[in-house]
Design brief:
By secondary structure, the chain is of the alpha+beta class. It is built from 13 helices and 19 strands. It starts with a strand and ends with a helix. Bound molecules: adenosine-5-diphosphoribose and P-hydroxybenzoic acid.
Length: 389
């Protein structure tokens, strides 16, 4: 097989890139190791920056998002049994849209299917060959048969556990990582959200987050020990703990119910540099991971896709390598700012096992400064709604 761009990974990054390229007449083949059902079964964050919304509009995949998504002009932050609001629209003129990442992925699959996009599912043994040459190719097996795709470029959109990042020699690659000493226990429940907007809560018992998917589907998280397993937590235990971590007036109106999904996610900050090696380009989780505190995972994947898509269009339409040559530098410049914000917001909202009394005083002073200072709220709002591409 031959294609212009071989895309490894059929998650949001790979699908969005494939659809955008298709609309500019640039063909690609997506290789996904799972089934579509498995990919669509993943529960992930649900806050979209305007940059991602615009990309989805460009890709012709934003109709349902606009019909079913929730425009949020701000978010709530609670500590010490009080709550204050960060007004995104007042400080930046832009809101965010709350819309499940699973739905974004579903919309992207629908668009690729409607366009007759070439997606190979349940592929195995994907290997990247000749990324540092002008004639790279990818091999893989499917249903026991070995296949080869000759291509101009390879987009590594295969997430943190994929093969793409590992295909860049360690003599070239530099990795930066921070592992957080706790996880997030999350549940999905068919109950009305406790508030109109998200509540990020810092409490003496740890972090909690009240989020939502629609008026009868809520998403809640509590900070938990790394040693915890979902089965250690009954629904009742979860609800009781959540109520202890949010302001009493919110706890009183919290509607509880059976969990329809319960899982624990570890928290990590991670970046690999560079994001390009020859004709291989890393996008999204293949290159970087953020703690979910700022909901930046999908949104940083989106800006990577934007830069790579622009660079590839420049190459094929204007015979210019300027875009692909500057891809890694441009993508990393925005990624590191998102990493900083996600690290800062995580440091602000969680209780750390090794936190000294002084550290705690600093955390509470930072929260008090954010509550009372307009410039601090402006900076928070600008980062939360998404820095410019
Ligand atoms: N071969 C083919 N596909 C692979 C391989 C492989 N060797 N390894 C992983 N994959 C697939 C995974 O099954 C997954 O569907 O690559 C896809 C990567 O998707 P994501 O992990 O969702 O990463 P990305 O598309 O960059 O999306 C980033 O989505 O998953 C969230 O937290 C993530 O919010 C972030 C955003
Ligand atoms: C979610 O709705 O799953 C969500 C929202 C905001 C975050 C993280 C997760 O920061």
């Amino acid at each position: 097989m031959k294609t212009r761009v071989a895309i490894i990974g059929g998650g949001p990054s790979g699908l969005l890139l494939s659809q955008l390229l298709h609309l500019r007449g640039i063909d690609s083949i997506v290789l996904e190791r799972q089934t579509k059902e498995h990919v669509l079964g993943r529960i992930r964050a649900g806050v979209l920056e305007q940059g991602l919304v615009k990309l989805l509009e460009q890709a012709g995949c934003a109709d349902r998002l606009h019909a079913e998504g929730y425009v949020h002009d701000g978010t709530l932050i609670s500590y010490d049994n009080s709550m204050f609001r960060i007004d995104f629209t007042e400080h930046t003129g832009t809101p965010v849209i709350v819309y499940g990442q699973t739905e974004v992925t579903r919309d992207l699959y629908a668009a690729r299917d409607a366009a007759g996009g070439h997606i190979e599912f349940q592929v195995e043994d994907v290997v990247i060959h000749g990324a540092d040459t002008d004639a790279p190719h990818v091999t893989y097996t499917s249903q026991g048969q070995q296949h080869r795709i000759d291509c101009d470029f390879i987009a590594g959109c295969d997430g943190f556990h994929g093969v793409s990042r590992q295909s860049i020699p360690l003599t070239v690659r530099r990795e930066y990582e921070k592992i957080y000493p706790f996880g997030w226990l999350g549940i999905l429940s068919q109950t009305p959200p406790v508030a109109e907007e998200l509540i990020y809560a810092n409490s003496p018992r740890g972090f909690a987050l009240c989020s939502m998917r629609n008026e009868n589907l809520s998403r809640y998280y509590i900070q938990c020990a790394l040693s915890d397993k979902p089965e250690d937590w009954s629904d009742e235990d979860f609800w009781q703990e959540l109520k202890r971590r949010i302001p009493a007036d919110q706890a009183e109106k919290l509607v509880t119910g059976p969990s329809i999904e319960k899982s624990i996610a570890p928290l990590r900050s991670f970046v690999t540099e560079p994001m390009r090696w020859g004709r291989l380009f890393l996008c999204g989780d293949a290159a970087h991971i953020v703690p979910p505190t700022g909901a930046k995972g999908l949104n940083t994947a989106a800006s990577d896709v934007h830069y790579l898509y622009q660079g590839l269009c420049d190459y094929y339409e204007n015979d210019s390598t300027a875009g692909i040559d500057s891809y890694s530098e441009k993508a990393l410049a925005r990624i590191w700012k998102a990493e900083r914000f996600s690290w800062w917001f995580s440091s602000l909202m969680h209780r750390y096992p090794d936190q000294s009394e002084f550290d705690l005083k600093m955390q509470l002073a930072e929260l008090e400064f954010l509550r009372t200072n307009k410039s601090a709220q402006q900076a928070m709002a600008e980062n939360y709604v998404g820095l410019p591409y």
